[in-house]
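Progress note, project year one: complex with zinc ion.
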Amino acid sequence: MTDLSALSSSPTQGGRDAVLKFFYGPMDCGKSTLALQMNYNHRRQGRRGIVLTKHDRSGGPRITSRIGIDNEAVEVVDGLDLVELVCAYDRIDYLICDEACFYNVEQIEQLADLVDDHGIDVYAFGLASDFRSQMFPAAQRLFELADEVARLQVEVLCWCGRPGRLNARIVGGVMARTGEQVVIADTGSAAPAGSAEPDGEVGVHYRVLCRRHHRNGDLGDEAASSSPLEPAHA
Ligand SMILES: [Zn+2]
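Model obtained:
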């Protein structure tokens, strides 16, 4: 069972240590939705928090979830010092860190500092591995440092029906094995003005596959089941 006890928002009052938790899962497993739900639950308890994200699918400083809820968020740019950010506020009880896999490793260290030196609860959400099934450096550091790690598996299925575990990058209809670790998917509907892409499969998008089909690169009936209109990234 995945431990989602943090969603119940137990307050830090009462002397317990602050915690660093990392919730990970493939694309489309509902990470952003859970992040926003957790923020709502904590805020309702009167706790003060900041929501952080990076490369959100909306392209702006907010978290958007596929089921339509969203929230203002601070964009974690490369040079941003998260300790300084938090210390600029009067009082912060917790951080919700969406897309934490894309932060840099130094920023993950800063999250641990906030937990240990400032008593702030940090709830991080993100992918564990990239399109090659290799760990993002920030995700690796979170695995190493977190008090608790939980895999989220909210019914993401491969085309074959097995549990979706790994993110595949598809370029021109073919699964990519090499390339930059982070490439934002083309959204189809939001192609840059003046781009002359022919209709169809030229762009980059992502799909979740089971381990077997990620390893052998079998996309099943790619054209029928892919969703190029759904922006995503890994
Ligand atoms: Zn499969």
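Confidence is low (pLDDT under 50) at residues 8-13, 189-201, 223-234.
Residues 31-44 form the longest helix (14 residues).
No further modelling is planned for this target in the current period.
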